[in-house]
Structure formats: C-alpha cells, structure tokens
Amino acid sequence: MAISRRQTLKLAAATAAFGNSAAPAFATAPPKRKIRLIILDIGGTIIEDNGEVPNAMHDALSDHGVTVGFDEIGEWRGASKREMVRHFVQLRTGMADSSLITKIYDQFVTDVNKRYAKVRPIPGAEAAIAEMQRDGYLLATTTGFDRPLTQAILGRLGWQKLFVASITSDDVVDGRPAPYMLFHAMEAARVDHVAEAIAVGDTPLDLQAANNCGLAAAIGVYSGAATEERMRKEKYTYLLPSVASLPAQLRKEI
C-alpha cells in the first residue's frame, strides 16, 4: 500500500522526535563517583625517608661485587626491592644468578630493618590519617618492601589496624609502575571501580602506577625520594608538600 506524502511527513517528524529525545541519554556524562579509597605509599609518603633504602641497597650490592651508582638506584625508588636487586645483578653480570640475588636481598632487608629501628612518621601524617578516617575514607597502603619488613615498620608505629589493606611487593608479579598493587588494594577494600580510588606517593613510579591503573587521581608528594621538580615531569592530578596537606585538598577539590 502506498504511503501518502502526509503520512511520510508525519513518520519523519516522529523519527526526528525520537532521535532528539534519545540523544541526551547517550550524550550526558555519567555522574562523578564519590572517592571511597585512598591508597598511600609508605616510605617517604607516610614515614620519613632519610636515605635508609638507597644506602642499604647500595651497600648490599657493593658488598657482593655489584657496583651501582646512587643515581641509578634513585630511578628505581618506589619499585619492588627484590626486582631492583634482580635488575642490577642481571645488568652488571649478564645473568640472573638466583643465589646472588637472594644473598644481596637478604642483606638489604637485614640492613634496612636495622636502619628503620626507630622509624618516624612524616610530620603531620598521623593526624592526616586520623582526619581522613573521620571523613569516612577507607585507607590502604602499597609498598616496594616485602611483607615481613612492612609488618615490622607498621608494628613499630602501632599502625597495624589503621588500614583496610597493606599490599606489598610479595603480593604481585610486577611492582610499580605496574598497577597490580593498586588493584589488589581495591580488591581487599571491596572498591570495584577505579573512579572511586586515588593513590598518593613520593616517587615518579608511584604516579606512573596510579595512571596505569586509571585511578580518579594520582597525587604526588615531595616529602620523600623525589623533588618537586622531578615529580612535575610526570602526569599528576595534584602535587603536595606532604601527606599532611591531603585532607584539606580532598575536601577542596575531590
């Protein structure tokens, strides 16, 4: 049956009206998710960094005939410490000698554990942690340290129960800048969307991991390993002097 010109015009108008009414549903951006989880690096971010890690790493490598400069070690700040040892052993000897790696790593852990015997928080860190908890945030930590060292550090500070998760380099195959520790922290906290989590750290690798994870924010602090100038070379959401400034920043911007 032929369609009249009048029917054709009515059909076209109805189609246009449907298209116009449907378009906004797809064009409208989804509502911004509320931040629920704050994932904090440990060394240099919530505890003081006075060169304990690079000094212990340099000594352990040197004592076993692996010569490495502090500038090279600096590029690995924030990474898995075991992987750092593996990298330099393979780089200098041409092979991943598991026995040598274990000896160097064990010496490093023993040494850095002694150096952290009187570990101290970043000034204002404890108050910031308490404030963020009062504001309703879940808090977790990630670190390039292994689990025994992490537990020793948190235990000395009495911080074992402050965090819903404390993820270490033992928990993942690849440390920073891979995002896996951050995903593990989200899993442990039962936060299932990256838009509901942010990460805070003091190294370029911390920021790279946060960006690789696609978190809502990658926040850098220059209270630890890297200078403000160095951190500004990375992609970041905010840069702060220290974690002490974080609660105010969260209330202001996020």
What keywords describe this structure?
254 residues, Rossmann fold, DNA polymerase, domain 1, six-stranded parallel beta sheet, 11 helices, 6 strands, 49% helix
What is the topological layout?
Blueprint: H1 5-27, E1 37-41, H2 52-63, H3 70-74, H4 81-93, H5 98-115, H6 125-134, E2 138-142, H7 147-157, E3 165-167, H8 180-189, E4 197-201, H9 204-213, E5 217-221, H10 228-231, E6 238-240, H11 246-253
Parallel strand pairs: 1-2, 1-4, 2-3, 4-5, 5-6
Helix pairs in contact: 2-5, 4-5
Radius of gyration: 24 Å
Biggest β-sheet, characterized?
A: 6 strands, parallel
Strand content: 5-15%
* Average of per-residue pLDDT values: 89
Sequence of strands across the biggest β-sheet: 3-2-1-4-5-6
- Given helix and strand content, the structural type is alpha/beta
Architecture per CATH nomenclature, i.e. the level-2 architecture of the largest domain: 3-Layer(aba) Sandwich
Please tell me what the overall shape is. Answer: globular
CATH class of the largest domain: Alpha Beta
CATH topology of the largest domain: Rossmann fold
Question: Considering DSSP H and I runs of 4 or more, what fraction of the residues is helical?
Answer: 40-55%
Number of strands: 6
Low-confidence stretches: 11-26
Our measurement of the CA-to-CA distance between the termini, rounded to an integer number of angstroms, reads 61 Å
User: Secondary-structure element sequence?
Assistant: HEHHHHHEHEHEHEHEH
